[in-house]
Amino acid sequence: MSPATVFSPKVMLGWIAAVAAAFALSIYLLAFGGGDTQRNAVGPSAYSRSAIGYAGLAELLRQVGIPVVKARSGDIVSTGGKLLILAEPPLLTAQEQGRYSFGDADRVLVILPKWRGYRSSSHLGWISDAALLPIAFADQTIEKAGATGRTARVARPESWTTNTLGVAPELTSSVQVIQDTKLRPVVAAGSQVLVSEQADRNRRIWILSDPDMVSNHGLFVGRNAEFAFRLVNALRPARGEVVFDESVRGYRAPSSNPLTLMLQFPFVIVTIQLLAASALVLWATMPRFGLPMPTPEMLAAGKQSLIRNAAILLRYSSHPEIIVASYVRSTIRSVARELRSPPGLDWPGVIDWLTRVGASRGVAVDFPHLVRRAEDLATSGPRNARTLVEIAHDIHFWKQEILNGP
User: Fold this and answer.
1) Per-residue exposure over 92-116, b if at least 16 CB sit within 10 Å of its own CB, e if not
2) For the domain 34-249, what is the CATH code?
3) What global pTM score does this model have?
4) Which of 50, 111, 247, 330 could bond 73 through an S-S bridge, CB–CB 3.0 to 4.6 Å?
């Protein structure tokens, strides 16, 4: 009889396959499921590899030896002695009033918004199309930066009459500029300002009106990469870092609280696996709750158990004939003691005396013949099981008749 099992083999195989698949999925997600911050960003951020993103600018600065930090909400980043870049901040809601918070930054570069990108369904991290944003988006950014002026989109100037950077950017036929402003021009064509400076106490704020020459799609057109490098290097403090403020776009740093991490993707996959494993352990151990189950007796009392154990011994014995012959002799001696045989009789004498007693009591079994058959077992070769059972049955039947009567 096989022991009881908690799970059937099919259920166990199903659980093993499910756990293996979940483990493989969790490894994949932990390795490649970095989330929107690293792989899926398509907006104008330093994480975005799309045409309107700034991952190229961040990498360019890093390649030329300028330290770059992408600051998210929850990151403890001091901007003092560094250049803070606020790239195309999103339109503020009605509840978000006042100016942008630049922290302790004493150098700030604000890039005005211009494009809205639409995520591509076929390429991860790309956009399928882009549309111009309303001018009001850029005007609000100027206002929130603490500057004055209005944004306009004009035909590309033939040349830039003011250019302290020394490199002319390569732009499309339509350029976004700032007009009617009191900002100090850094790169401008008359009253049409491309790069301007706002003095804010001890803080220097530069505003780049058109992002096309520093975003991914235009950075390496003409001398735009050199223009972007000079733009950043002219404003950056000596040996200072460049900090892209990504908190305005909702990017958050991973929590340092392990309990919070357990409930965040992709670590929640591991949490689910742990809960599933705990449930399986509980399921498997529920039969053992409470008092221990009694252990079955190795040798239960009663004739039925005795017969079963004797049959098992006969089955696994290499010489069952000797066991049956010993059983016959033991039975004969037991009967002789119960009938109080005369003392001093040898074995043939006991057989002869029991034969006479059996005859007087009307025993039908041929006792002398049964004894000869039993004695032959000890000296003869192997016998079939039927013969052994017959002899054991006959000696038991003889015992019942001689003691209790036919």
Assistant:
1) eeeeeeeebebbebbbbbbbbbbbb
2) 3.40.50
3) 0.58
4) 247
